[in-house]
């Protein structure tokens, strides 16, 4: 199932409630991607728990919180309590990723782990059953609007192979430089959840951009599945 998660990092921060609603609706965003940065793990500072709480009240679209922060073991559970339906912590920052994933799940949210571009998936193979989603970053985390890193495509493929090997119902998300010109390659490689920032919020009609990206990804995924079947 293809899912499109617009990133509010590319939205107008002065009108976040309205921007969240602009991508909603029956054919709109599957999730709203919320980038949390602390200016320590990444060189940028964005928003935190109070804004997530406000967004939860402002939109019916579930919130997908991506924590680019130090000490997620301490902070991630607070984002579940603030209303996040999915919380992503970074493998590079978590002290006890299995324990943290279980705590996030126990509080009622989906647990997700992110990998920076230089972090391989293979050392984390045994952790995959503890997760609901794995995020392969296709840019260096910290800023929106970066160019897609094509060298991440083999990593996406390897991750999909590991998920399939274990027969897991694990979503595979990509984040960074996802647009009309890159989403098909990601879908063909095995990703099924796509974070898009400027490709959605930079469009004249963000909701229509979500629908167009979803259609592209579905077609590419179906084509890849057909190829594999032969």
UniProtKB/TrEMBL annotation:
Q: Which UniProt keywords apply?
A: Carbohydrate metabolism, Cobalt, Isomerase, Manganese, Metal-binding, Zinc
Query: Enzyme group, top EC level?
Result: isomerase
Catalytic site: 35, 175
Q: Which reaction does it catalyse?
A: D-ribulose 5-phosphate = D-xylulose 5-phosphate
Q: According to its UniProt record, in which pathway does this protein act?
A: Carbohydrate degradation
Gene Ontology CC terms: cytoplasm
Organism superkingdom? Bacteria
Reported function: Catalyzes the reversible epimerization of D-ribulose 5-phosphate to D-xylulose 5-phosphate.
User: So what family is this one in?
Assistant: Belongs to the ribulose-phosphate 3-epimerase family.
Output the PANTHER family linked to this UniProt entry: RIBULOSE-5-PHOSPHATE-3-EPIMERASE
| The name this protein goes by in its record | Ribulose-phosphate 3-epimerase
